[in-house]
Write a structure and sequence with these properties.
2 domains; 8-stranded mixed sheet; 6-stranded mixed sheet; 13 helices; about 25% strand
């Protein structure tokens, strides 16, 4: 299963990883298209955001090379090739002024049309994936084999974007600049530290066998992050130590607790947020399901977290959302042993805005370009913008109009459970963010303490968003290495059978969303401006 996770992550558009292409960098050839800004773009002031210009001019210690493999030959591909050339020209020509000093870009780029067998072989060797491009109308479609990918080289490090959809131009600068920063951080040994609250019997990011059924050593979110994105560091934060949270942390993450927070602990979290330029991400709902519980009996308890979130204008209800239009489709066995698809209402799968009222903001960085995101065991969020007048509060994920909720203290969530649609049906917000000058969550009125600079809070009201709920419940306890080598793997067969397709369908999405969330947490005012480009319409 570890190899499976690597395959899911490696060589994808959103999470192209180091090592995707270890071939030699192709030299300049006569097939290269010179990168230059076109007349109509050179007259535009500041074609790149400030974050991009600062990075390529001040943030890089040495040359960063971009080789763009873009096939030409159809009107659409020709237009995309010119668009890439124009954008890379902006990166090459960028300047940045700070403290009276003007710095020039350290980016060097070329666009290569792989016309020959040799160039096509070099593109594949570099890790760029050959694709079929279709162009035409209902009467006739012309298919063209070609490439649309990028290879970034900085010092001894390399980053590969195997394929970039030519029709997706709106997020190009955001994605390319983010990849440049990742590459720079890895090569220059720059790390960004995030705190993860521990000591609350919480869902730990180091848990193995909580993402997928695995008879081997298993995988964990922390392990994947350490292996593929070493510039991001996760550090434990134990609030029981009664000391301020380390101000050097870029952000703080709270996962589903198993015991209550004290008011003093929540106040220390609030003090950290009020430092300004800090992020708080909360993966919590009222639905609590401990690991290794094959019966899957859940209990509703907020463990005091609502006392913090409510102060930020995000009220969490003590319920579990059931979505009767967007529930996950799970394969289960009928009494006769045949596979039967089951719609599992307790795991809404959200994507692009739909007529049924469901909506996922796929332009919001933590969900960027993701179109089928699971929200296991979610609770309803209500937004109260009046509590944070200096900030922007918005929903970034909501279920369908066919959603209801359960408020029983204890409830079964096993795949065999049958739920009836009872009570009012309406869309339920299951993820929300508040960004700006935040008031303290524990004070009100005009004199309430405010953050020293803009901060941000994201609440994903899904208790097992960062887990495979069926693997986590169905797997037995983690075994010592000697038993793992013997192939011993206790667990519930039915839940593990369901956990396998769930992992195949959603594991990649879970990992990518978490990595994108860390990118969002790491943003400052300039990167927020860059993030705003995601909402721009495709040119």
């Amino acid at each position: 299963m570890l190899r499976f996770a690597r395959a899911l992550l490696a060589c994808t558009v959103v999470a192209s990883l180091p090592g995707c292409g270890d071939g030699q960098k192709p030299p300049a050839t006569t097939s290269s298209i010179a990168v230059s800004a076109t007349p109509e773009t050179t007259n535009k002031p500041e074609p790149l955001t400030r974050a991009s210009r600062r990075l390529v001019c001040e943030g890089l210690k040495q040359e960063l090379r971009i080789d763009a493999y873009v096939t030409r030959g159809t009107p659409a591909l020709d237009a995309f090739s010119q668009k890439v050339a124009t954008m890379l020209g902006h990166y090459e020509a960028a300047t940045f002024e700070s403290s009276g000093k003007t710095s020039a870009s350290k980016v060097k780029a070329q666009v290569i049309d792989p016309k020959t067998d040799e160039l096509r072989a070099r593109a594949r060797e570099a890790g760029v994936q050959e694709q079929a491009f279709g162009e035409g109308d209902e009467q006739k479609v012309t298919l063209t084999q070609g490439f649309s990918g990028f290879v970034l080289t900085y010092g001894a490090e390399r980053e590969v974007i195997p394929f970039w959809p030519p029709e997706n131009g709106a997020s190009f600068e955001f994605f390319l600049t983010t990849k440049m920063r990742e590459l720079r951080d890895r090569a220059d040994g720059i790390s960004t530290r995030f705190g993860v609250v521990t000591g609350k019997k919480e869902l730990r990011l180091s848990e193995k066998n909580s993402l997928a059924p695995d008879p081997g050593p298993g995988i964990s979110i922390e392990g994947v992050l350490h292996e593929y994105f070493p510039s991001y560091k996760l550090e434990e934060v134990d609030l029981r130590r009664e000391s301020p949270i380390d101000a050097g942390l870029r952000g703080l993450i709270i996962t589903q607790p198993g015991e209550a927070y004290t008011v003093e602990e929540l106040r220390r979290i609030d003090e950290f947020v009020l430092l300004g330029e800090r992020s708080l991400v909360v993966y919590v709902s009222a639905v609590n399901l401990p690991r290794a519980t094959p019966a899957m009996e859940a209990k509703l308890d907020l463990f005091g977290v609502d006392g913090l979130l409510g102060g930020y204008g995000i009220e969490m209800k003590k319920d579990m959302v059931l979505d009767f239009a967007r529930g996950a489709r799970l394969p289960v066995l009928a009494p006769d042993g045949s596979p039967t698809p089951l719609t599992y209402r307790a795991v809404p799968i959200l994507g692009e805005p739909s007529r049924d009222g469901s909506q996922l903001d796929a332009a919001f960085a933590p969900f960027l370009n993701l179109h089928a995101v699971p929200f296991p065991f979610a609770s309803t969020l209500l937004l109260h913008p009046e509590k944070q007048p200096g900030a922007k509060l918005r929903a970034v994920a909501r279920t369908s109009s066919q959603s209801t909720s359960i408020t029983a203290e204890a409830l079964p969530v096993h795949p065999s459970t049958t739920w009836k649609q009872e009570g009012p049906a309406e869309p339920r917000v299951v993820a929300a963010t508040v960004e700006g000058e935040l008031r303290s969550a524990f004070a009100s009125g005009p004199e309430a303490q405010r953050s020293k600079a803009p901060s941000r809070v994201l609440v994903v009201s899904s208790s097992q968003f960062l887990a495979n709920p069926f693997a986590r419940a169905g797997n037995g306890p983690e075994l010592p290495p000697q038993l793992q080598m013997m192939g011993t793997h206790p667990g519930d067969p039915l839940l593990l059978a369901v956990a396998k397709p769930y992992a195949t369908e959603h594991l990649r999405t879970i990992l990518i969303s978490f990595k994108s969330t860390l990118d969002w947490m790491n943003a400052d005012a300039e990167w927020a401006e860059l993030g705003a480009t995601l909402a721009a319409p495709a040119p």
